[in-house]
């Protein structure tokens, strides 16, 4: 029987034409490029019976482009393109492998019919398709790829010097593609989505109707192994007169069925099988399509494996090695009843032996780049859910249907699940509060515990109590941390993000983050889709465009007013403490970085005289009305007014071990005796400094401060040292000791 290859301009058109001409009795399978399907059926052509193969291209097969430097607009004078620039014809989309696909499908065909538009573009594609029944061999480079363009060009130049390719080795090996395991629910749902275009919930409902009507066995099962007493021949005989697969079934019954592969026995229900014969007219629509698949799958499980011969030829061109391979089907086996599983035909390789030579027609270099993974399909999601133990055969379609109905994802073409903004923000919010709530580990752990109960290896009440306790704690923690979720929701679904103003640069993408002033105030990076909490009840401004040495985020300055506290902070460190002795909500005045000029280690003076745990820290932004403030409570000491410069010395007081301060006063307003302008001393012990320090409490205390108000209220002079017996939490004297304090 002769073969007619028919080619349309796009896959959807090929499917429609084949369905009409075959009256729905076609079989379909994906081509080797994964983009175009091949629809096969028998019919009449030129008054003789033939086998039709209907497929398509995806628009233009080839494109015209400039060569070398002429393809880089920044390196060539555009005027040269009109006269001197050489061009080449190459594949329009190399990822589709359209040329190889057409060569494979066209092999052995007697006629070609082109279903293309009757215009100049359609005629052009006609010639492109015709030019692809060429018999040249395409060789793959053994190195596959290199990431240095100059190195790749060197290999290309070396190979182009050679005119012949010499055969180095040939091999022919018989291989087999195994028949499928018996059908369980998860596999049925996976195929229904990927091949039939049916969502899991719809497929499950359709299967249940087929079961209640007596056409298939119970559709909820995890088992892929037929029971020993299962009547395989009896189920097969019911299909012996079916118009679509009668020949295959009769041949199996005559020659003897093949023993099914040993699968998994979950101890629930037998695999899904047809219970009686049915036709398309009887069932119609999706019910027929699902029934047809279930029946074909059952027949395939008792068929023989597909056997094919894989041939490989290795060539040497100059110093480089190349390979080409081809497959020839020996026995189609189960792929006769499941044609979409058939081994894709590849190039027909010539008969040759070591030492033979072939003429090199063309050597070219392709420049490509990696691309991010596509959205998950329903079938891929079902596979991952089964792998990670998320849900059961009964609950998987319900879970997928729920995330669709709740608008967390939308189903795009190809049954791909695209997360919505709501879904993305929800996951980010859960991940920010408790990552286990969105990771598959916690659900799979519960499923494993249930399996242990079923096996008698775990106590039901203990597992129940433990699980309830875990989720109760998670619930309360989530409720206590719900503000983080609210922030993400507001930024994504309210006009706040649009009304925010650019303030500081993100350390990850180096783009400006927007400052959202409405409470709770925060910074939001729209590029990274990250939100950073800020101290409340104060003003925020950029801090001199200085950056955090740990994460490169620009620092911002929080202030409660001219007479209150102020300190710089890194938005990232404030939300993600960099050291284990820090907590969330700590600014630079509590950061224990050993060398950063803004940290407690460099600006800390000594223990607060009011609270138990605070340290007085110099506010370097407060001049000329200098301030020293506690990093825990709301104590503020105003000091050294009109001083030109105040800095924390590396030296410490011999009496109280507090850090000394180096102070430079303006000559005209110096309070120092003898018109001196510089003085170094201890703010607690030095009699000169004691007269220049005024202690008060900050006007306001923001919620992130963990200290309460001091024990002593009102104004007063700080004349004494810290109370005796209290250790000074001042940093170690040298930086190596400081570093050791973090890592030991």
UniProtKB/TrEMBL annotation:
Q: What class of enzyme is it?
A: isomerase
Biased composition, Basic residues: where in the chain?
A: 703-733
A Gene Ontology cellular-component term: nucleus
Residues annotated as signal peptide: none
Q: Could you tell me one molecular function GO term of this UniProt entry?
A: DNA binding
Residue ranges of region Disordered? Answer: 258-279, 703-736
Catalytic reaction equation(s): ATP-independent breakage of single-stranded DNA, followed by passage and rejoining
Q: Entry's PROSITE patterns?
A: TOPO_IA_1, TOPO_IA_2, TOPRIM
Q: Which domain of life is it from?
A: Eukaryota
Question: In which family does this protein belong, per the annotation?
Answer: Belongs to the type IA topoisomerase family.
Query: Per UniProt, which keywords does this protein have?
Result: DNA-binding, Isomerase, Topoisomerase
Q: What is this protein called?
A: DNA topoisomerase
Provide the taxonomic classification. Answer: Eukaryota, Metazoa, Chordata, Craniata, Vertebrata
Q: What is its EC number?
A: 5.6.2.1
């Amino acid at each position: 029987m002769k073969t007619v290859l028919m080619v349309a301009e796009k896959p959807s058109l090929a499917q429609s034409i084949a369905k009409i001409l075959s009256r729905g009795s076609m079989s379909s399978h994906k081509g080797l490029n994964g983009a175009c399907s091949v629809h096969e059926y028998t019919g009449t052509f030129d008054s003789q019976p033939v086998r039709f193969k209907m497929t398509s291209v995806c628009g233009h097969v080839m494109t015209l482009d400039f060569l070398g430097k002429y393809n880089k607009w920044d390196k060539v004078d555009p005027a040269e393109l009109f006269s001197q620039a050489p061009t080449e014809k190459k594949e329009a989309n190399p990822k589709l492998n359209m040329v190889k696909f057409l060569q494979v499908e066209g092999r052995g065909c007697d006629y070609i019919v082109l279903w293309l538009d009757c215009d100049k573009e359609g005629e052009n594609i006609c010639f492109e398709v015709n030019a692809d029944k060429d018999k040249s061999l395409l060789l793959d480079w053994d190195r596959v790829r290199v990431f240095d363009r100059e190195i790749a060009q060197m290999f290309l130049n070396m190979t182009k010097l050679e005119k012949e390719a010499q055969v180095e080795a040939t091999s022919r090996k018989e291989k087999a593609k195994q028949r499928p395991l018996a059908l369980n629910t998860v596999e049925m749902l996976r195929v229904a989505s990927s091949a039939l275009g049916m969502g899991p919930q719809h497929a499950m409902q359709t299967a249940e109707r087929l079961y209640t009507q007596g056409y298939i066995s119970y559709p909820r099962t995890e088992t892929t192994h037929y029971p020993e007493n299962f009547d395989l021949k009896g189920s097969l005989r019911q299909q012996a007169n079916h118009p679509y697969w009668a020949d295959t079934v009769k041949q199996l019954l005559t020659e003897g069925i093949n023993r099914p592969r040993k699968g998994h026995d979950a101890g629930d229900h037998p695999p899904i099988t047809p219970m009686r014969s049915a036709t398309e007219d009887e069932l119609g629509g999706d019910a027929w399509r699902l029934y047809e698949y279930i029946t074909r799958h059952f027949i395939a499980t008792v068929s023989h494996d597909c056997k094919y011969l894989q041939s490989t030829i290795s060539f040497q061109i100059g110093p480089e090695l190349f390979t080409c391979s081809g497959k020839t089907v020996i026995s189609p086996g189960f792929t006769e009843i499941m044609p979409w599983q058939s081994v894709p035909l590849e190039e027909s390789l010539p008969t040759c032996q070591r030492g033979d030579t072939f003429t090199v027609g063309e050597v070219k270099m392709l420049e490509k780049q990696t691309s991010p993974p596509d959205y998950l399909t329903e079938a891929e999601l079902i596979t991952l859910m089964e792998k990670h133990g998320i849900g059961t055969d009964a609950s998987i379609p319900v879970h997928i249907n729920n995330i669709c109905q709740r608008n967390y994802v939308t189903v795009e073409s190809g049954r791909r699940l695209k997360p919505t903004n709501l879904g993305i923000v929800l996951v980010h919010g859960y991940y920010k509060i408790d990552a286990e709530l969105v990771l598959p580990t916690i659900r799979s752990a519960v499923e494993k515990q249930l399996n242990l109960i079923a096996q008698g290896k775990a106590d039901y009440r203990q597992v129940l109590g433990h699980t309830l306790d875990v989720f109760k704690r998670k619930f309360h923690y989530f409720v206590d941390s719900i503000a983080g979720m609210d922030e993400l929701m507001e930024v994504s679904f309210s006009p706040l993000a649009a009304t925010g103003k650019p303030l500081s640069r993100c350390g990850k993408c180096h783009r400006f983050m927007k400052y959202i002033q409405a409470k709770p105030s925060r910074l939001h990076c729209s590029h990274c889709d990250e939100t950073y909490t800020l101290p409340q009840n104060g003003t925020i401004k950029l801090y001199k465009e200085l950056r955090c040495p740990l994460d490169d985020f620009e620092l911002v300055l929080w202030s409660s007013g001219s007479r209150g506290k102020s300190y710089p902070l890194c938005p990232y460190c404030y939300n993600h403490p960099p050291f284990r002795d820090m907590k969330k909500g700590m600014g630079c005045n509590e950061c224990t970085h050993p060398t950063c000029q803004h940290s407690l280690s460099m600006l800390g003076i000594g223990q607060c005289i009011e609270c138990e745990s605070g340290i007085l820290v110099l506010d370097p932004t407060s001049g000329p009305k200098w301030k020293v403030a506690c990093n825990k409570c709301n104590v503020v000491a105003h000091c050294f007014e009109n001083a030109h410069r105040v800095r924390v010395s590396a030296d410490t007081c011999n009496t109280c071990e507090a850090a000394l301060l180096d102070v430079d006063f303006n000559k005209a307003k110096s309070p120092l005796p003898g018109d001196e302008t510089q003085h170094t001393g201890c703010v607690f012990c030095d009699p000169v400094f004691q007269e220049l320090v005024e202690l008060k409490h900050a006007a306001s205390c923001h919620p992130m401060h963990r200290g309460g108000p001091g024990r002593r209220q009102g104004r007063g002079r700080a004349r004494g040292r810290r109370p005796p017996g209290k250790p000074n939490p001042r940093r170690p004297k040298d930086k190596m000791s400081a570093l050791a304090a973090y890592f030991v």
